[in-house]
Every structure is written in C-alpha cells, then in structure tokens.
C-alpha cells in the first residue's frame, strides 16, 4: 500500500468502525461488512508495521438513539 509508505515514523491511524460489526443489525450487511474489513485490515497492518512504530486503531462508538433507530 503506497500511502502507508508515506506515513511518518512514528504515526497513528484511526479508522471509524460501527457497532454493527459486533452485533447483527437488520439491513446493514453491506455497511457492517465494509466497516469490519477496515478493522480487520487495521489489525493486520498493526502486526506488519509495528517495527516502524505505526499504530492502527479502529474506533467503534456506541449507537445513538435517533428516529431511524426507533422506526
């Protein structure tokens, strides 16, 4: 990944995840799976780039009650 080679040493990368990757929510399969890929890729890159002191984190905030969740 070319963009990874441009990261300074040390660096931190934070990707946004979703609670949908941890629990099954109806009609969110494509969204949840695409976010799960980012979290999995972050774990993989963490292992590959630990020697360069580059951290990868996937932030998974909790859900917020909105009208969309009520309906």
List the helices and strands and how they pair.
Layout: H1 2-5, E1 11-16, H2 29-49, E2 54-59, H3 67-70
Parallel strand pairs: 1-2
Structure, explained:
This protein is α+β, with helices and mostly antiparallel strands and 71 residues long. It has one domain. The chain has a two-stranded parallel ribbon with strand order 1-2. Strand 1, helix 2 and strand 2 form a beta-alpha-beta unit.
Q: How much helical structure, as a percent, in the residues?
A: 40-55%
Structural class label? alpha+beta
User: How many DSSP helices?
Assistant: 3
**Number of separate domains:** 1
Oligomer: single chain
Structure summary, number of beta strands = 2
The first-to-last residue Cα distance is: 41 Å
Task: Label the overall shape.
Answer: elongated
Question: For the residues shown, what is the average pLDDT?
Answer: 83
Low-confidence stretches: none
Describe the structure concisely.
This protein has 71 residues and is of the alpha+beta class. The protein contains three helices and two strands, in the order αβαβα.
């Amino acid at each position: 990944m070319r963009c990874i080679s441009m990261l300074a040493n040390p660096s931190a990368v934070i990707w946004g995840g979703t609670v949908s990757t941890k629990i099954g929510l109806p009609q969110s399969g494509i969204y949840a799976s695409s976010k799960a890929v980012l979290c999995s890729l972050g774990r993989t890159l963490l292992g590959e780039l630990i020697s360069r002191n580059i951290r990868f984190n996937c932030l998974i905030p909790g859900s917020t009650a909105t009208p969309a969740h009520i309906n």
